[in-house]
């Protein structure tokens, strides 16, 4: 069982930045695939970013949705069992509840972007971007 706790959400003006953190339990964090998803009011949950171990040393694969490429970045600190989402140049349309997710490694890009790939989820943290 993996427990995930997000933090770092809040209210920010358009153009501002936030850094979300996700603290994970578990002894094998380095081998988990990790993802960030978000859900805006009245909309379905959508993929934001993912990172997964390539199986080679300390090499990790990363992927971002087209809507956040160039503005967001995903990173992880395995020593701290933590996942991060750095969000820059925030827009009002980035307003949503952001969820951290964890699961076994996946074998395709599409799987990494799919919420059902991840059996473990945090409770979410609210990000609100004002115009």
Describe the model.
The protein is mainly beta. The chain is 3% helix and 48% strand. It has 1 helix and 11 strands. The strands form 2 sheets. Strands 2, 4, 5, 6, 9, 10 and 11 form a 7-stranded mixed beta sheet that branches. The protein has a 4-stranded antiparallel beta sheet with strand order 1-3-8-7, with no helix packed on it. Strand 7 and strand 8 (82-87) form a beta hairpin. The longest helix is centred in the last third of the chain and has 4 residues, at 109-112.
Count of individual beta strands: 11
Distance between the termini: 40 Å
Biggest sheet, open or closed, and with what strands and sense?
A: 7 strands, mixed
Q: What percentage of the residues does DSSP assign to strands (E)?
A: over 45%
SSE order and pairing:
Elements: E1 4-7, E2 10-13, E3 18-24, E4 33-39, E5 46-53, E6 60-64, E7 72-77, E8 82-87, E9 96-103, H1 109-112, E10 120-121, E11 125-130
Parallel strand pairs: 2-11
Antiparallel strand pairs: 1-3, 3-8, 4-5, 4-9, 5-6, 7-8, 9-10, 9-11
Q: Summed up, what is this model?
A:
By secondary structure, the protein is mainly β.
Primary descriptors:
1 helix; mainly beta; 3% helix; four-stranded antiparallel beta sheet; 131 residues; 11 strands
